[in-house]
Amino acid sequence: MKFNLQPNLGKEYLEHRVFGELTEYADFYKSLSIHISGWITQGTNSFLNLDTWVYSSIQGTLESIKDILLKGRINDSYALLRKYFDSTIINVYSNLYLSDNFSIDNFIVHHINNWSKGKEKLPEYRVMSKYIRESPKLMPITNLLNQDNTYKDIRNRCNDHTHYNYYHNLLLNDNFVYLQKKRQMALDNFSKDLEDIFIQHLSYLFYLNQHYMMSTDYTDSLEMGMTPDEDSQYFVAPFIQNIFDKVIKAKRTDIAIEIKNKTTMKLE
């Protein structure tokens, strides 16, 4: 029996929804990176917002995932999906830690400041995840996100692919014709895992840093010497409202309601 070892991805594979999702999410992080660049990261002595570079890095990771998936390397893509997962946990952890520890009496939070300067490592994933999970500030979102084993299962899948825990994991890095049906199923699972990580990140981020949702209406008026419209400091940037509607509200109405109830921003 001879196998076709040449790339034979097919129209169904190449037109899978995951490629559009990866482009959409990467574009969102690019916009968010630029959008929040003017907010100083309190608790550090950085002149720039640390998250600006985090989000542009995540943008790059998502673009790399798309490039690799377009070559049919699903197994390799899961290794990068784990990197994306880690990046979101690091981002939530660092913001939460700063929120918990920054004060007038503790103007520089050395744990995060030293990390940003390359002088100190952050804890391992397990420690950061536990810190987030047990935070009273984030508990309402955590309880909604952890109603089942979704994120534990995603983590296990990422690890299985990264470490070749099962033979079928490495097979998904090849383009054998006889694996096409399994590859479509794997893409479906990958798309769902990607979406769930994205939802978790945005849910925590917007719940913790509501000012990141702010449109430029208020600051634009001030810079032009005009009186800002009433309550314009609570207007939400259109690209954030769009992703909130399309992903969070559409996929997790319960989380959308919780964020809207907590924030003073005028989310629709």
Secondary-structure topology with pairs:
Elements: H1 10-14, H2 17-35, H3 50-69, H4 74-101, H5 110-116, H6 125-133, H7 139-145, H8 150-162, H9 167-171, H10 180-208, H11 217-223, H12 238-251, H13 253-262
Helix pairs in contact: 2-3, 2-10, 3-4, 4-6, 4-8, 4-10, 7-13, 12-13
Overview in brief:
With 268 residues, this protein is mainly α.
What does this structure look like?
Helix content is 65%, strand content 0%. The chain is mainly alpha-helical and 268 residues long. The protein has one domain. Helix 2 runs antiparallel to helix 3 (50-69) and helix 2 (17-35) runs parallel beside helix 10. The longest helix is centred in the C-terminal third of the chain and has 29 residues, at 180-208. The chain starts with 9 loop residues before the first helix and ends in a 6-residue tail after the last helix. Mean pLDDT is 91; it is low at 1-6.
